[in-house]
């Protein structure tokens, strides 16, 4: 969760004043979170949110990808309350992409999985297209808190629409990254 979610959460908040300052009505600043289809099986367990040895690696990955979608939706809600905010944040699923990450399954199993992905699924270039689309497309810049797949707006899993969980995740994330109220308020100031 630290790398795939908490780092993104903190970096986004720290960059938010600059993003707010540079966004314009017809050209908003854009934040694109790379999620995954595996957000479908993720869950947010607040009792074990930051435990490093509680889940299997794959489960942690799924949980972090759900957290990114929830974060995009919650930040969108919080930005709507800010004056003249021209920042959008959306989540993307790049699809099944063959990358070197599969070597973490071991050299033999990883090579087999990577071979299957390279031959049956998207190349890294193809996988990047949805993120590029969301970062550059005019219509994609008109929505915020949404989920995209294959360069189209799509529905996230139902668990990504739970506003109560999104708010609680926000509060826990602020606490776990040790951000004070003053620091958090600074992130939302208009510069």
TrEMBL record:
InterPro entries hit by this protein: NAD(P)-bd_dom_sf, SDR_fam
Gene3D superfamilies linked: NAD(P)-binding Rossmann-like Domain
A Pfam family matched in the record: adh_short
The protein's name: Retinol dehydrogenase 14
Keywords: Oxidoreductase, Signal
Signal sequence, renumbered to the chain: 1-25
Single Gene Ontology MF annotation: oxidoreductase activity
